[in-house]
Amino acid sequence: MNAVPASATAPAALPRRRLLGPAIVSLVGVTILIGLGVWQLERMAWKQALIATLTERLAAEPVPMPAPATWAGLSREATEFRRVRVTGEFLHDKEALVYAVGSGSRTATGGLGYMVFTPLKLADGRLVLVDRGFVPDADKAPEARAAGQVRGPVELVGLMRWPEQRSVFAPSDDPARNIWFARDTASIAAAKGVDVPVFYLDLEAPPAPGGLPRPLHLQPNLPNNHLQYAITWFSLALALAVIFFVWAFGRRGSDA
């Protein structure tokens, strides 16, 4: 029996080996693109749930703020955006300025400025941080907005909020200048030497005398473009697969 010369099988095997590398690269690319599309669908579901929660809780009547004895057991999922009412006295000498970043869920700031975070002293002596609202950069000094530094007990309505995740691009906080770049209750409390719960209150009412700080009211109109993004990623995955198969069949034809 005569052996088949190696040169007879080489032409058929060589084109397949030439396709292996591009096939692997294309498969990895398609997998990544499909994964990005699925991730956007998951983000869409999360955003829809967030909008529904925000809409429901912003429309609810304010209830008394949870008692301090329950603070340790509170969760973000159960309390975020809950409207509450509480009475206390602001400790203006402990206020902190948090750089204001634009958001589609808030009324516009109108320019560069800061959110004023001030501890509110409750009747039992406990403290809770309150985001009193926005002040322009030119009015960040307390003496520039003296009318808004209200004294004595105040009854207010606000939303329960939880600290935001710090962006990797955010600068480091500057306690020496009383400026923070994230709504981080623990960091603010440590710098001010106060003991506060992890949540804070986002003030709705009453407005400050003189108009500053100005509360930036949350609105349930968050952008939700994740379906569009998902379609884009899936389309790119399909396009990459089609391009590879067209190229591969063309290459096999030229090598035949």
UniProtKB/TrEMBL annotation:
A Pfam family annotated for this UniProt entry: SURF1
Major place of residence: membrane
UniProt-listed InterPro entries: Surf1/Shy1 (IPR002994), Surf1/Surf4 (IPR045214)
Topology within the bilayer: Multi-pass membrane protein
Residue ranges of the TM segments: 20-39, 229-250
Domain of life of the organism encoding this protein: Bacteria
Subcellular location: Cell membrane; Membrane
Keywords associated with the record: Cell membrane, Membrane, Transmembrane, Transmembrane helix
Cellular compartments per GO CC: plasma membrane
Family per similarity comment: Belongs to the SURF1 family.
UniProt name for this protein: SURF1-like protein
Organism in which the protein naturally occurs: Rhodoplanes roseus
